[in-house]
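INFO batch 0412 | record 1 of 1 | parsing
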Amino acid sequence: MLAQDITFKARAQQAVVAGDKFQLVYTLNKEGSDIRLAPLEDFQILMGPSTSYSNNTSIINGKVTRETSYSFTFILKALKEGSYSIPPATIMVDGNKVSSNALKIDVIKNNNQGNQNNQSGNAPASAASKDDLFITVTPSKKTLYQNEAMVLTTKIYTKVQLDGMSDIKQPELTSFIAQELKRSEGISWTNENINGRTYSVGTYEQKLLFPQKAGKVTIEPTEIEFLVRQRTVRQSRSIFDDFFESNYRSVKKLVKSKPITLTVKPLPKGKPSGFSGGVGKLNMKATVSKNDVAVNDGITLKVSISGTGNHKFIENPTIKFPADFDDFDPKIANSINNTVAGMKGSKTYEYLIIPRHAGTFTIPSIKFSHFDPVSGTYKTSSSGDITINVEKGEGGEYSDGTVVRSTVTRENVKFIGKDIRFIKTTDARLKPSGTFLMGSLLYYSLLLLPLFVFIIFFLIYQKRIRENADLQLVKNKKANKMAKKRLKRSSQFLKTGEKEAFYEEVLRALWGYMSDKLSIPVGELSKDNISEVLLQSKADPQVVNDILEIMDTCEFARYAPASGTGEMDKIYNKTISTISKLENQIKRK
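INFO prediction complete | emitting tokens
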């Protein structure tokens, strides 16, 4: 059933000339992966596989038919004359291996070049010639006007297999404004026949150029250094030899295009008054959001320039607004795509205008002139006069012409119609003339303040250095902190009810605390010298007894029968309380 559904076919020329390249194409009607060729000892694989996909849907008498085709193209080179067979290739489809048909190809003698085969049985890899690999840089037009759009296309022509590019040197387009044209990721390859030879052709890059100066302009050559993959064919009976990387090598090949000379014509004289730099096939349209408004109501004027040309380089149109209107800088919106014909889309200027007096006002016709390179003439678009009727708002107008604002909330709207502008309308704090901060007592105090602050910080810092130098003092200060940290661990054992671990941790915390506080190594500590030193340090005898009693309790409880959680909680709280009391009483000698 699988064989009936899947078709995997191979096709190629029945006869080729020795030394020439030809295509070996495998077609599959379902998506597959991991295509593998059998060892081809009599052919050299120059390129491939190049994969393509097509989907065709047809409707005949209401019946929908869909055909899907995947193609895998290899470029081969016939090494020597003879009659050869290309064994079936395999591909994985839905986890199953599918085989193609075999092919028979006759390789005939090349009378022009003679027999170039190596008699030892090995086919040497030769460097790609200028006919096997070259690039072209082609302008869409060689004669054009200043600021007229043109496309510069860079294409790669190859009959050899490429591993990539190692270096690219492109010309500096100082006489142009360049825009990149969108392209899909990677290079899409097609086949073209040039002078009887079939090449794999890929478009490397396309740029949209706008020449900025008139005269003869030369575009320097583009240089690309390719990595050409060459296959070393060895006489071998092993079916695995052709898949080893050691059978291939990459060779650098520098390819250079030809220089291009363009003729850029200046724009004709006699530019119209409304010309703002537009070149192409363009049109202008102007509209207002409303024609009947009240005083201080905002109006939106939109001027849209659409078509194909150089939209981004067009200057703002000249508009004469009535003197009774406030106008603001336009908001510019671009909806433009770069195409092979130029910039295509629209550029919109959005103006906010606010009338300040009632009446009927006219915005003179807005004119937009551009140069049409096809006809070689200037063309002008006009919006016609725009009439706006303004009625009094809620506040109306005073007899002296002063406008009372009603609905305007924009902070940057000018307040017109008044002759007097008060500098300050709130209470002002005045001071005698000639009084300044500089030279006053406050001025000198502020100057000396940083010095005093530095001295204080310096003294504090020196004191801290001296204290840190006394390791015993530092250790003594940290004793209480370390004891609490250790007791924190014992509290975890208290929660989990681990009796032995709890008492052991409390006892360890007390011995460590005493060692740090009394500056006596743990190995030299005993209950006797702890009691003696604490009493000498003027500690309360009761507190000393509590310390020793806690130690005895912990030592006994570690090996005594299990005690309740209440007893452990009592010991924990008593230890914390006793250490806190001792901290307030003990004095270091």
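INFO post-check: Confidence is low (pLDDT under 50) at residues 112-126, 242-246, 398-413.
INFO record closed
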